[in-house]
Amino acid sequence: MTSAPPETSSAATTPATSAPPPAPVWQVGAKPLPLRRDGFGQILPTPPVLANRSLPTADLLPPPAGNRFAGTVNPVPAGVLARSTWQPDCPVTAGELRYLTLSFWGFDGRAHTGEMLVNASVANAVVTVFGRLFAAKFPIEEMRVTAPAELTAPPTGDGNNTTAFVCRPARGLTNWSAHAYGLAIDVDPFCNPYTKGDLVLPELASAYLDRGNRRPGMITAGDPTVAAFAAIGWTWGGSWTTPTDRMHFSSTGR
User: Can you give the pTM of this predicted structure?
Assistant: First the structure.
C-alpha cells in the first residue's frame, strides 16, 4: 500500500514578503546650508519631501480637550522667559509681554496646543485670530517660543515655526523688527516665504513661490487668515511689493 505524500503548508512554500520601508522623515534643522555673501543660506531647490509639506507636529503641550479651541493669556513665566530671545536691552520689558497658549490644527489633521509671546496690548486680539483660524481648520505645523540659539544657528532653510516675539532687527536693517516688540506674527513661514530680489526665506521654500498651486498652510489675498488678522487691524506682508513677506502679519504695518 502506497502512502500519500505528506501535506505541505502553503505558508511554507510561499516566499515571505517584507513590509515596505517607512517613508523618509525630514528632520528640520539638521542640514546647514552653504552661506551666501550676505550671510543667508544658498537658495537651493525644494527637496521633494517638502514640496507639498505635511510634516507631523511634535506635542510640547497637552492637546486641547475634545478638539475644542482654547486660548490662554498670562504673564510670561520665568522659565519661558529664560528660554526666549528676550534680554534687558530688548525694546520691550518682560512685563510688557504675555505668554499665550493656543489651539491649532496640525498638517497631520490633529488638534495641538502651541505657545507664543506677544505684546500685552494685542494679546486678547491674537487669541481671537487663532480661534478663527482653528474654526477654519487652517493647518499650522509648529507653534513655539523662539530660542536664543536660533538667532545665531547656521541657516538650514527648512523652518516652519509660527511665532511672534523675536528680539532681533528687521531683516537687512539695524532698527528693531516689529517682532522685537511682540507686535508681529509669522505664520507657516515655509509655506509663505519672504522674497526680495533673488533672496528666498526660508531658503529651501522656492516650491512655494508658485502661489497658483494651492497647498495646505498657504496664505493668499482675501482668505480666512488674511481676513482674521484684518479684523483686528493688522496688515499682511504678502501685499507688499518689495520685499514680499507672505508669512508676516503686524499691527505696525511693517
Answer: 0.89
